[in-house]
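Cont'd.
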Amino acid sequence: MENLFDLTGKVALVTGATHGLGMAMAKALAKNGATVVVNGNTPSKMENALHQYAADGLEVKGYLFDVTDAAAVAASIEKIASEVGEIDILVNNAGMIMRVPALEMSPEDFRKVVDVDLVSPFIMSQAVAHSMIRRGGGKIINICSMMTELGRDTVTAYAAAKGGLKMLTRNLATEWAKYNIQVNGIGPGYFATDQTAPIRVDGHPFNDFIINRTPAGKWGDPMDLGGTVVFLASKASSFVNGQIVYVDGGILATIGKPIEP
Ligand code: GCO
Ligand code: CA
């Protein structure tokens, strides 16, 4: 029987994949046969990341560029096409968060978060779409968040951007389905990464809150995203379009439970 999840012969680009969830997803795609291109923005982080991939026996290619810079993106996509191959799978993972009360947040900071978390997935998607259309299809996967559906104190800009990313996903799916491009999203719950390190420390009220709020009773392991990203990147999902798959240990299914005294 045909393996619907096999990614052999496909080129996948994962943005912001020098660490954290991006790295875990890039590894999952590589382990399932894809040729993986890793994007980052900091040379030292990229160097360190390439060592980590190699330590796992994975040969990935690293490209440094700023995903918010449309000209840099266009040039890099062209360079990747000639050096590695045209992109079949794009994972828009690069993101940023600022935890600032809404009353104190400057418009400049708000714009910065929206630029990285929402505008850049648009720039990236548009940059790969032309070649996907020419070659008969492709896969775009936008990394959303619990904040795509839920609010939380201090993350106004992030929530606004991640909510917008859901509708970017649906609208690109609407416009590009006819080209056999599937545009879907993954909404990770709370994962043990650098981004959540400041709020994950033992004894921090937020740490207890998340564990209590998550039916699975724990922070996610980045590798828990592997199956979903491979599914959405593969033939297995060829009629799945415009969906956000939440990988959250059950958070969105529940109102939560009382805190035990
Ligand atoms: C926060 C967290 C979240 C997570 C994740 C949740 O401050 O609440 O950092 O934003 O990073 O996106 O899905
Ligand atoms: Ca190919």
